[in-house]
Amino acid sequence: MPAHRRDGFLLAGTCFLIGITFGVFADSSGLGVIQASALSILTFTGASQFALVSVVAGGGTSIAAVGGALLIGTRNGLYGPSVAPLLQGGPLRRALSAQFVIDETAAMAAAQDDPVMAREAFWTTGLWLFVFWNVGTVLGVLTGSALDNPGALGLDAAFPAAFVALLVPHLRTRAGQVTALLGGAIALVSVPLTVAGVPMLLAALAVPVGLVIRRREAS
User: Fold this and answer.
1) Residue 125 is assigned to a structural domain of this protein
2) Most Cβ neighbours (<10 Å): which of 49, 65, 82, 169?
3) Could you list the residue range(s) of the whole structural domain that residue 202 is in?
4) 11 found inside a domain
5) Residue 104: pLDDT over 80
6) Of 120, 118, 40, 48, which Cα lies nearest the Cα of 77?
7) What is the pLDDT of residues 50-73, one digit of tens each?
8) In the chain, how many domains are there?
């Protein structure tokens, strides 16, 4: 199996754990299998789904839940310019393809130098992830309803694991390695000095450095 297809499958498999986490969380928030599955099939973007369920669990209104989910989901539109050339076919097919424009597929496609490989990485990741995510959602709801303390499963580690998996394809290049090391160093230094969440934002300052290195290598 080509590396870009294998990486896409492994990344999708990692997200299976997050799908289970979402199912457990949805069950603890009062959603059933049909409701949770509808969110996973129709929304299919984890951050927005977790945001919506979080608002519901906290007693928020439907308008607040949907509004928050939509706001977070708008980031996927930023991937459009880089992913659009990969989506072939007529308007209807391209509209259906947009359902798969998410963090993971955009990251896998961007890691490829060849357009054909980028398209294969996009679809391999997207289709497998759709299957794993939805199966995981169902298992999570069923598992959550059978447990007194779902938090004992330690599924909160699934999110960090998935983001690490997103980095793997980029670590094959010098630009990716420098970005990862610099971002990690920034986060490590800022953790004891800032509040939660800020170290991750500061680590993004390493991205421009990686882009400069990548452009120099390409020239």
Assistant:
1) yes
2) 49
3) 173-219
4) yes
5) yes
6) 48
7) 888 888 877 878 887 888 778 777
8) 2
